[in-house]
Amino acid sequence: MPSPRPSRLVRLDPPFGITLGNELPLVVIAGPCAMEGMDFGLRTASALQEIFAAAGIAFIYKSSFDKANRTSGSAFRGVGMDEGLEILARIKSTLGLPVLTDVHTPEQAAPVAQVADMLQTPAFLCRQTDFIQAVAATGKPVNLKKGQFLAPWDMAQVLEKARATGNERLTLCERGTMFGYGNLVADMRSLAIMAGTGFPVIFDATHSVQLPGGQGTSSGGQREFVPPLARAAVATGVAALFLETHPDPAAAPCDGPNMLPFHELPALLRQLKAIDTVTKG
Question: Is 149 part of a structural domain of the chain?
C-alpha cells in the first residue's frame, strides 16, 4: 500500500518561503495558460496576488511562453522564450512572486532555470529521458507531469530518471488519464499511488477536464467540473493544486474552455483551504 504521508519536502530558493509537502498547508500554482504580453502578465499576476493573499494561500504564478504540444500546426504557440522570460523576470522583480513555466527542449532548461523558481515538464514528454534529466540537472524544483497515457505507478520510473541527476526537489503531477478518444478521467487513486514515492503530489485540476482536440484544431474543456475535482483532490491531502485561470477565458488564445475565470476563484479557494485544514489536521 502507498504511504499516505510522504516525508519529503520541496523548498523554493530564497527569498521565497514556499515549501511543498503533502503534510503541509496547500500551495496553489495558478495563472493563464499562455503569456499574452508584458502588460497582461503584470496585470494578471497582480490580480491573482491579491486574490491569494485574501484567501491566505501560498501562490506560485504560472504561465507558458510556448504551447509546443499541440495537435494542430495552426494552434496558438505563445510569445517565445526570450520575451516570456522577460515577462516572468519582471513579475518576480515588480511583485515579488515566485514563477513557474514549462520547458519543452533540453536546450531550454538552463536559460529558463535562470529565471523560473520552479520548472515544469509537459505531460507528453514524461518518457523522454534526455529531456527529463536536462531539466532536473538544473537543480531547480521540477514539477514532473504524468502523461495522459501513463499509469501512476510508472511515474516512479520518471522520478528515478530525474533523481539520477542528484536533484531531489521534485514533485509529481496528475493531470488526467486518456478515457477513449478526446476525453480524460481523473482517477483519485493516482494521487495516493504517487504519494507512495515519498515525494509531494500536485493535482492539475484544469487540464484534467480538458477535451483533447475537442474543437477540431484546438482542445475543448469542461470547466464546470474543475471545482468538484479540485475539492476531491485536496481532500486526499495533496501538496499543491495546479489551476489555470484567466480574467476572460472565452477570449483566451488557448485552453479557454478548461480555465476558471478570476471571479470564481475566491469562493473556491475558501472551500479548498477549509478542506485542506480538515484533511491535514
Answer: yes
